[in-house]
Design goal:
This protein is mainly α and 459 residues long. Helix content is 73%, strand content 0%. Helix 2 packs across helix 7, helix 6 crosses helix 15 and helix 7 packs antiparallel against helix 12.
């Protein structure tokens, strides 16, 4: 990280440490490949939550008519997401901050991951009746909250498995493992349990058993692939001494101090390097648009282009393949050209592809296969480059704190894509117009990103 410009403002000690301590990543470091693989396998296992729980299987299961009016259950799913997002926005910065310097980053990753695994496993008990809808929503909210908190600690570990020379490549590899894990698990569950009338072990769809068994397998999948990172990646050095006083009063005092420190850091961050604050805002916006590409891709395929349920799953698998491959390949470009050109190029490509989906939609399914997959090519690289951009400028000992803020800003913007998608669909009474809402979110994020300097000017 280059020297920050002289703003004439004296920084607070926390913010000064945050921004002026220099790059947390060693310029050259030989990290064992097995350690990198162990770290990335957490993303592979996380597909059990990202792809199965929140995207293609469990949320679709809850939105079915067996749980009541689909419009009502969909609204409740949205409300659950909003509540989870608010809780993450409030908790993520503090949980990340509390793990920094205590040598307990891996410990908290393990605890939070375990809670997610238990939540996914308990989804097996959500039978296909309205009476079980509240249980399903609560489990989904709990899983969402703790998965996002676990991601704070996981992302912070990027500095422990990469160097300044390899961070883009390693980040891209981890991100792609999430896509590939989703592909494999989707294939296992779809052809093993969900698609056949009678699946493996005689499982049928009576009482939603095919989906419920799929959730139990997803829980085992995440649990198994989360173990390697806990064994292979060491805890960071201890730089903070924790008090032995563990009373409930002391706990809340520590939480209060953490928030006070967070507020000071944000204020100091704005005074010293506004480009960092603007990047957090810009990335929050375009990351929400990128998430919307996958979130609403299945809806667009089925409703606007007439894909069958089977075709939607096949498209989802293809989308994960192209996103995963492009993330790996373009991650190498990140290390050569830098993360900002990757982000800008990917966002421009996604905007153009999205507009082509809308303009040429009368061409039918072929158009969606071409330009829908083209959009997916750009999702992973932009997400990965965003993470590596941040990892390059975080000083040692503050990774969890800053990634907590990264998580917070991302969650603060999660209403943008759903809101604009719904506005356009409602206004024009046609699902295809929803793609315009997603494109607008991506374009706004791009516009906010363009003025941000990749390197600070030297004052």
């Amino acid at each position: 990280m280059t020297d920050l410009p002289d703003t004439g403002v004296k920084a607070s000690s926390a913010a000064e440490a945050l921004l002026a301590a220099g790059m947390s990543l060693p310029a050259e470091a030989e990290v064992p490949k097995r350690r990198i693989l162990a770290w990335a396998l957490w993303d592979w296992g996380g597909a059990a939550f990202n792809a199965i729980t929140t995207t293609f299987v469990f949320t679709v299961y809850l939105a079915s008519r067996e749980f009541g009016n689909p419009d009502n259950t969909t609204a409740l799913l949205g409300l659950t997401g909003i509540i989870g997002g608010i809780l993450v926005a409030l908790i993520a910065p503090v949980t990340g901050q509390r793990s920094d310097g205590t040598g307990r980053r891996k410990l908290w990753l393990g605890i939070n991951t375990l809670i997610v695994v238990v939540a996914i496993g308990c989804m097996f008990f959500v039978k296909e009746t309205p009476a079980y809808l509240p249980l399903g929503l609560v489990l989904l909210a709990v899983g969402t909250l703790f998965f996002e908190i676990a991601s704070v600690n996981y992302n912070a570990m990027l500095s422990q498995v990469s160097s300044a020379r390899t961070v883009g490549r390693v980040s891209g590899f981890g991100w792609s493992m999430g896509y590939f894990g989703g592909i494999v698990l989707l294939l296992i569950l779809y052809f093993g349990f969900i698609h056949p009338a009678v699946g493996l072990f005689g499982v049928t769809d009576k009482d939603g058993l095919s989906v419920r068994v799929s959730m139990a397998i997803a829980a085992l999948w995440m649990a198994g692939f989360s173990i390697p990172v806990l064994l292979a990646v060491p805890e960071p050095p201890v730089t903070v001494t924790l008090s032995e006083n563990r009373s409930i009063t002391t706990f809340f005092v520590r939480i209060g101090k953490s928030y006070a420190r967070l507020i000071r850091d944000i204020g100091g961050l704005w005074k010293i390097s506004r480009r960092t604050v603007w990047f957090l805002i810009a990335s929050a916006v375009f990351r929400d648009g990128l998430t919307g590409v996958f979130t609403y891709g299945g809806v667009l395929a089925a409703v606007a282009f007439g894909f069958s349920k089977g075709d939607v799953i096949i498209f989802a698998i293809a989308a994960n393949v192209v996103a995963g491959v492009s993330t790996v390949l373009i991650g190498r470009l990140d290390d050569v050209a830098g993360p900002k050109p990757v982000m800008v190029g990917a966002l421009i490509g996604a905007v153009v592809a999205g507009l082509c989906v809308f303009v040429f939609h009368s061409g039918g399914t072929t158009i969606f296969w071409i330009f829908g997959l083209l959009m997916c090519i750009f999702v992973g690289p932009a997400q990965s480059a965003s993470r590596s951009f941040l990892a390059r400028v975080i000083p040692a000992g503050h990774e969890g704190e800053v990634f907590g803020l990264y998580q917070t800003t991302g969650k603060a913007a999660t209403v943008l894509a759903p809101l604009l998608f719904t506005i356009f669909v409602t206004a024009f009474h046609s699902t295809i117009y929803g793609i315009i809402g997603i494109v607008i979110v991506l374009a706004v994020g791009l516009a906010l990103l363009l003025p941000i300097q990749a390197k600070a000017n030297v004052g």
